[in-house]
């Protein structure tokens, strides 16, 4: 690796996605490396600017503190070998199937509690546990229709689950658009590579949603339900609606009559069978959830209870992607699947357990502490990067509310080259693959590779200065 | 054993026309504990279909929609309820009994703060007053807490609203049964005693004014199960209490909650009538 | 594929109206500015140019709430950048852009980009520059952006419901504003009021043509007499001229019929018969200039309002906001005693 663009590149003992320990490009990356190395810094800069312009023109931005920012994109793709992907896909299908069964059980028979797999206390104390779902059976008993599972690779390149996202995970639009812009501004990178296509992802999602329609509906009518243009992810809502060819509705566009949901169209009321909803559980229906919600549809839960509409993802799946429940997922997989979990997790300490708590409070410097209901990289203490003051604050918070926090070993996320300031520099990355689940779980062949742009940072969330890379799953 | 016929009527008049009214009502007495229920019935005007389901706490919930324009809404719930005589008096319960880890797995949700029962600094300060007396066992403490709430808070209808918080109650020291119940729940949960909210109706044969909705508490006592406490009427006459809904606090068991489109609400009247039911043999 | 969301149709309609309104006001500003340059007497200019300009927009009352005098500075500001004026050009463009954002999935990317671009460009104008000589570049920028938008809409969109709702908005707005323009200008040049604007009658008529974007079409048609009669003919009843009232009415009727035929709306009986009635009234009465033009145009504006209401009834009756009534929590007070 001595091309100019990589002249400052250092491995520094981390697992690098592109280079092996001898600083040679890994087999899969060889073609890409020689292609990129032959480009000058100015060419790569120009291409990067062009990609940025693509995002701005499309209006692909995220809101942060009330301002719109383009989503930073790195042009060097992240590669996943076909055999790695085959294994990962099986592992993800196993995990999502188990989590879906868990939701069904928790709100139904609660066998997992009776059999001692998950303590009842963990369930009832969970913020995402939605009591309105108790005893309610969604159409086809399907709960998780789209999951985004955050994966990392540790020092040895071993894949581990960092967290599960079952409640309306976002990012699928970036998966599709990253590839579109990649092909537009850097087509020569694809030379010699057979890359699995991702542009079918919205159709794959639509198929899963249609398959989850109430029984007996021949030609289900689907809508995307959005909180509206003020929402940070509105671009994605509108993109997915357009790509799936279905209406993008707000709560006020829907109305309940005779235990059915209808769309208010120019020609009158039009029945709706499946709602891909991107509004949070609490706002779905002011009749039985948050009364001050102006985003939902009054009476929606009544229709849902009657089995006349599918809500995707089902309300209440927050019980399964809670960060403390995460510690129980390996057992959940063993219990429902009757097999060993394929994916490793990150060793996790529950602050509820006195022994765990004592260990964590003594070792805050080397651990990562997370609020169980935090998201977007907020409510996190990264021990090795923290100040004494921050550690004292988290110690206090843990004491006040042990159920509200977990701690994990600090994992050194794998790194990949990212083009910054005219050169490639190594940055930590993760991977969010998406799994749709209708009749059966299917993994979108690609995913969102998120990049921590700040040197040394382990936080990849876009709200915290993260960017993304196109993710290539290779055909062979 | 008392056999009572209860009816609960809610009448709402709007200032103008309203439509798309969707409601959930919890007005059917529970069939557990010391209660048996016959002929529960919900009637709505304007006439519409009523759908029943059971919520996470085992309460019966009726759901209905009145989509068409209307000016008034009337919801009437009736049932015949048989209430067993009061259970035997409580034996002392040691504080240790609440430390057992199994308690959290049995009734953990009633140990946590809930939307209307929060452990604020004002609650802490009031709890210190209650605890100052000291107590050998939990039952003694509960009776003392029940009386302290009753004596510290002036019962005054209209002094609070349905949305008032415990902090507002402690500030004004005036309130109704709902507020006093929330305060009592906070005191219990702070001490690690599982406690839940009960909404229901009180049979007061000697009362000349109309009966009213009532709220009180149930406390989980290891070895006894759920037992009633009523900070509004300490040491209550239990066979006169009809239990309709239980939950973590009021927000889990509002008798009527819903949503509609159109004019403001002009007037709402709630009437509860409870009297001895005629003998089933004579029907 | 079933019918479009009523809210979305409503958004499209108002997006197009806002774009058309911005275009109209940009033209008015430009012509008024040129006229005021030709008038030596500033005070007379204020009364003959700027006051009628604000009057034409129908916002004179709102204007007087925040301004004492109508003069060049206040009128130009009020119509261009005033946030407090919901019909200022910047307000119209902002509203169109925000509406379009909520229906982005239906619009071609280029249409959204063009609208977003003009919004961003206008937002970055230092308002102070609109004084001496700034009106023309400003107006031209708005007009060009609107032309680009029309070109993209007409050149790249399928003639489906989306396109028809945009067309309804554009022509409903245009018909109304042409009638308003004629009414106000005609009132101003009535013989008994002519003393107020000595020697400006001809000037006024030509400016009116320019305001309506009809100057060049008129020159091609004109017999050389510069008669108000031919001018009114062109702006009101010429069914081949895209800025005439009758042309606008025909477009509205055509879109409504298409929407009904395609099943996008259930019926448009009231709107269609109003359009037909208005058209008949116009061909009968207007070409004879007999002192009643202002009245006739007043009547056309009334008809435009009725057509809008009927059209909304046919197309947007189910949209949130049209059904009326606020959301309430039921039985918010049932404290337990």
Layout of secondary structure:
The complex is a heterotrimer of chains A (476), B (283) and C (337).
Chain A: H1 30-37, H2 41-58, E1 61-64, E2 67-70, E3 73-80, H3 82-106, H4 111-114, H5 120-124, E4 146-153, E5 159-165, H6 172-185, H7 201-211, E6 222-225, H8 234-244, E7 248-249, E8 254-257, E9 260-265, E10 268-272, E11 274-277, H9 300-305, E12 310-312, H10 329-337, E13 344-345, E14 348-350, H11 354-362, E15 367-371, E16 380-382, H12 388-400, E17 405-409, E18 415-420, E19 423-432, E20 434-437, E21 441-443, E22 448-452, E23 466-473
Parallel strand pairs in A: 3-23, 5-13, 6-7, 6-11, 11-12
Antiparallel strand pairs in A: 1-2, 4-5, 4-20, 8-9, 9-10, 14-17, 15-16, 15-17, 18-19, 19-22, 20-21, 22-23
Chain B: E1 2-28, E2 35-45, E3 50-54, E4 60-66, E5 70-83, H1 102-107, H2 121-132, H3 138-152, E6 154-155, H4 166-172, E7 174-175, H5 177-190, E8 195-202, E9 213-221, E10 225-229, E11 241-247, E12 256-262, E13 265-276
Parallel strand pairs in B: 6-7
Antiparallel strand pairs in B: 1-4, 1-5, 1-12, 1-13, 2-5, 3-4, 8-9, 8-11, 9-10
Helix pairs in contact in B: 3-5
Chain C: H1 6-38, H2 42-56, H3 60-66, H4 72-80, H5 89-102, H6 109-123, H7 135-156, H8 161-188, H9 201-211, H10 215-221, H11 228-237, H12 245-261, H13 269-285, H14 293-315, E1 326-330
**How many domain units of chain B?**
2
Range of helix content of chain B: 10-25%
Amino-to-carboxy terminus distance of chain B: 19 Å
Walk across the major sheet of chain A and give the strand order: 3-23-22-19-18
Order of helices and strands of chain B: EEEEEHHHEHEHEEEEEE
CATH class of the largest domain in chain B reads Alpha Beta
CATH class of the domain at 347-409 in chain A: Alpha Beta
Q: Could you describe the 3D structure shown?
A:
The complex is a heterotrimer of chains A (476), B (283) and C (337). With 476 residues, chain A is of the alpha+beta class. Chain A has a domain of 63 residues: Dna Ligase, domain 1 (2-Layer Sandwich), CATH 3.30.1490. Chain A has 12 helices and 23 strands. A 5-stranded mixed β-sheet of chain A has the order 3-23-22-19-18. In chain A, α2 packs across α6 and α3 packs across α10. In chain B, a hairpin with a 3-residue loop joins β9 and β10. With 283 residues, chain B is of the alpha+beta class. In chain B, α3 runs antiparallel to α5. The radius of gyration of chain B is 20 Å and the shape is globular. In chain B, the strands form 3 sheets. In chain B, strands 1, 2, 3, 4, 5, 12 and 13 form a 7-stranded antiparallel β-sheet that branches. Chain B has a 4-stranded antiparallel β-sheet with strand order 10-9-8-11, covered by helices on one side. A two-stranded parallel sheet of chain B has the order 6-7. Chain C has 337 residues and is mainly α. Chain C folds into 2 domains: 157 residues, no CATH class; 164 residues, no CATH class. The N and C termini of chain C lie far apart (55 Å). At the A-C interface, α8, β7, β9 and β10 of A face α1, α5 and α6 of C.
């Amino acid at each position: 690796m001595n091309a100019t663009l990589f002249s400052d590149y250092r491995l520094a003992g981390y697992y690098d996605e592109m280079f092996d320990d001898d600083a040679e490009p890994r087999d899969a990356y060889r073609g890409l490396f020689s292609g990129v190395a032959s480009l000058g810094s100015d060419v790569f800069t120009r291409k990067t600017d062009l990609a940025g312009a693509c995002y701005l023109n499309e209006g692909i931005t995220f809101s942060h503190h009330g301002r719109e920012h383009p989503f930073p994109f790195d042009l060097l793709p992240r590669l996943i070998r076909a055999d790695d992907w085959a294994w990962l896909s099986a592992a993800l299908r196993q995990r999502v199937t188990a989590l879906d069964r868990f939701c069904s059980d928790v709100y139904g028979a609660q066998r997992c509690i009776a059999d001692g797999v998950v303590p009842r206390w963990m369930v009832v104390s969970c913020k995402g546990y939605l009591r309105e779902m108790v005893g309610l059976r969604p159409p086809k008993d399907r709960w998780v229709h789209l999951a985004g599972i955050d994966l990392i690779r540790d020092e040895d390149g071993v894949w581990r689950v960092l967290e599960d996202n079952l409640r309306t995970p976002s990012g699928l639009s970036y998966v599709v658009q990253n590839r579109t812009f990649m092909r537009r501004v850097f087509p020569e990178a694809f030379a010699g590579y057979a890359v699995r296509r991702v542009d079918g992802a919205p159709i794959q999602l639509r198929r899963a949603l249609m398959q989850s329609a109430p029984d007996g509906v021949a030609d289900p009518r689907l809508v995307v339900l959005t909180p509206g243009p003020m929402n940070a992810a509105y671009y994605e809502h509108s993109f997915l609606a357009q790509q799936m060819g279905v209406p993008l509705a707000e709560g006020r566009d829907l109305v309940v009559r005779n235990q059915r949901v209808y769309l208010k169209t120019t020609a009158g009321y039009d029945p709706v069978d499946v709602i891909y909803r991107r509004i949070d559980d609490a706002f779905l229906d002011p009749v039985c959830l948050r009364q001050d919600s102006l985003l939902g549809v009054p009476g929606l839960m009544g229709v849902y209870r009657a089995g006349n509409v599918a809500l995707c993802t089902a309300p209440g799946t927050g019980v399964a992607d809670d960060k403390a429940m995460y510690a129980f997922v390996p057992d959940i997989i063993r219990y429902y699947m009757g097999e060993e979990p394929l994916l490793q997790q990150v060793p996790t300490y529950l602050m509820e357990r006195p022994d765990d708590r004592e260990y964590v409070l003594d070792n805050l410097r080397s651990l990562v502490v997370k609020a169980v209901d935090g998201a977007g990289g907020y409510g996190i203490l990264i021990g090795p990067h923290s100040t004494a003051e921050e550690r004292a604050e988290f110690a206090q918070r843990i004491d006040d509310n042990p159920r509200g926090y977990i701690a994990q070993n600090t994992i050194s996320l794998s790194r990949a080259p990212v083009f910054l300031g005219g050169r490639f520099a190594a940055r930590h990355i993760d991977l969010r693959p998406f799994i749709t689940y209708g009749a059966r779980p299917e993994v979108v062949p690609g995913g969102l590779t998120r990049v921590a742009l700040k040197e040394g940072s382990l936080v990849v969330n876009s709200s915290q200065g993260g960017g993304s890379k196109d993710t290539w799953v290779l055909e062979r | 054993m008392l056999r009572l016929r209860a009816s609960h009527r809610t009448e709402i008049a709007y200032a103008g026309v309203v439509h798309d009214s969707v409601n959930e009502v919890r007005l059917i007495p529970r069939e557990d504990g010391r209660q048996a229920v016959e002929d529960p019935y919900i009637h709505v005007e304007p006439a519409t279909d009523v759908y029943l389901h059971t919520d996470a706490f085992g309460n019966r919930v009726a759901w209905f929609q009145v989509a068409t324009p209307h000016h008034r809404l009337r919801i009437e719930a009736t049932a015949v309820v048989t209430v067993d005589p009061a259970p035997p008096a409580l034996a002392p319960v040691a504080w240790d009994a609440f430390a057992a880890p199994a308690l959290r797995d049995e009734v953990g949700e009633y140990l946590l703060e809930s939307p209307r029962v929060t452990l604020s600094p004002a609650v802490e300060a009031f709890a210190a007053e209650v605890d100052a007396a000291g107590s050998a066992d939990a039952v003694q403490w509960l009776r003392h807490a029940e009386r302290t709430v009753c004596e510290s808070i002036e019962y005054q209808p209209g002094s609070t609203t349905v949305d008032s918080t415990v902090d507002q109650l402690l500030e004004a020291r005036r309130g109704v049964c709902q507020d006093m119940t929330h305060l009592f729940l906070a005191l219990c949960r702070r001490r690690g005693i599982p406690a839940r909210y009960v909404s229901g109706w009180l049979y007061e044969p000697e009362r000349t004014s109309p009966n009213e909705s009532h709220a009180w508490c149930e406390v989980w006592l290891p070895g006894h199960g759920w037992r009633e406490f009523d900070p509004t009427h300490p040491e209550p006459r239990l066979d006169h209490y009809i239990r309709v809904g239980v939950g973590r606090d009021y927000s889990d068991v509002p008798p009527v909650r819903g949503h509609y489109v159109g004019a403001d609400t002009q007037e709402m009247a709630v009437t509860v009538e409870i009297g001895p039911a005629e003998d089933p043999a004579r029907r | 594929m079933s019918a479009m969301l009523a809210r979305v149709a409503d958004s499209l309609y108002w997006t197009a109206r806002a774009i058309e309104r911005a275009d109209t006001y940009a033209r008015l500003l430009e012509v008024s500015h040129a006229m005021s340059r030709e008038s030596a007497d500033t005070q007379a200019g204020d009364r003959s140019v700027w006051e009628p300009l604000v009057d034409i927009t129908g916002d004179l009352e709102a204007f007087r709430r925040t301004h004492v005098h109508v003069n060049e500075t206040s009128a130009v500001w009020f119509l261009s950048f005033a946030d407090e004026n919901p019909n200022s050009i910047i307000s119209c463009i902002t509203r169109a852009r925000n509406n379009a954002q909520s229906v982005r999935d239906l619009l071609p990317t280029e249409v959204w980009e063009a609208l977003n671009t003009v919004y961003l460009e206008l937002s970055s104008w230092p308002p102070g520059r609109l004084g001496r000589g700034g009106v023309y570049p400003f107006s031209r920028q708005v007009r060009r952006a609107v032309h680009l938008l029309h070109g993209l809409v007409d050149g790249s969109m399928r003639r489906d419901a989306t396109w028809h709702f945009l067309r309804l908005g554009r022509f409903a707005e245009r018909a109304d504003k042409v009638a308003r323009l004629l009414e106000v200008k005609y009132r101003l040049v009535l013989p008994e009021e002519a003393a107020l604007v000595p020697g400006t009658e001809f000037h006024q008529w030509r400016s009116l043509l320019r305001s309506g974007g009809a100057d060049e079409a008129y020159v091609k048609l004109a017999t050389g007499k510069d008669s108000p009669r031919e001018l009114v003919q062109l702006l009101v009843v010429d069914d081949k001229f895209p800025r005439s009232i009758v042309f606008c009415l025909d477009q509205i009727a055509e879109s409504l019929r298409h929407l009904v035929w395609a099943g996008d709306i259930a019926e448009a009986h009231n709107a269609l018969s109003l359009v037909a009635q208005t058209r008949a009234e116009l061909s009968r009465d207007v070409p004879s200039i007999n002192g009643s033009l202002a009245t006739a145009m007043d009547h056309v504006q009334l008809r435009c309002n009725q057509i809008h209401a009927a059209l909304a009834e046919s197309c947007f009756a189910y949209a949130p906001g049209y059904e009326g009534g606020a959301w309430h929590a039921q039985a918010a007070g049932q404290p337990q005693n």
